[in-house]
Amino acid sequence: MLASLLVRAKISSANSLIMQTDLLIIQTRLRTQKFRIVKLVQKECIMKTIEYFKLQAKNLYKDFKTQKSYFDPNYGRNLYEYAPKFFDVDVLILDYDIDEDNFTLMNAQHIIANLSGFTKWTEMLKASPSAQELSKLLFDNMHKISVIEWDIYISGEEDEKGFLFDNEFKLDIFKAVFDGVDGHQSDGYDYRLVRNEKLSNEKHIIKPKKDKISVQISALPLSESDFKEFIEIANKKFENILERIEHTHPKLLRKLWNPKEYIDEVLKPDMLPIDRDYALSLVESFLIHHVIGLATEADEQALNLN
Description:
Layout lengths: L1 H63 L3 E5 L4 E6 L6 H7 L9 H11 L5 H6 L2 H12 L6 H15 L5 H11 L26 E3 L9 E2 L6 H22 L4 H7 L2 H8 L7 E2 H10 L1 H19 L1
Antiparallel strand pairs: 1-2, 2-3, 4-5
């Protein structure tokens, strides 16, 4: 009788081990299957995003293919006109310094990547699912916030929190603050015709940039008139950035701000001669990074004062 009970106990124990092993196998398979499903969903999302941006690039290229040359008696030369359906071609040409005579689908892809927060098309293709989803939201919400404004906003938040955000965290922030939230209005330009109510269906006519008279800066320091304008633009941009980052110590930050020193840092003698408008754009473009550096310095001063 005792032997029979021992045999049964061993059998029961063996069956229990077998059941535990089977359970582990099932759990492992479920986890593997779940992982595969997640990867498939991510891959599908990536493909959908890429296809979406490919469509935008094709639409932009179609708009450029509506280009027609005509003679303008006022200018005494040939100009271009467009009949776009998807994007404001005129403004894109001016803002992105586009060569109208050699515009390709690859150029269109590059611009779409820029409008979505990437420096180039290949960077977008290699980006993580979170980064790609965020880029699509940026593109779809450019009437609410531009890429530059978003970078300023995130830089301010990272500086305040004291650490860099990953793409998933940035995506969560964008969804919570901007996507589907009314009341935001970008100071930037919405290049999409379907979102810009100010644009008409008439053909848009512009002067080719190659015919524009360029004013060159050939010597430093700047002339009195140029210096005054550069200082005015730098100060205006500084206040705009300061307002957007909502820094906790604005008075300290303003004390650290020296527009003359900043302009001297941006414009170097080895850059001469340089187009005046391009020089002004550099002063505006690099200022966000300069302000972030000043903000960090202001925080350190405030900490020492306390």
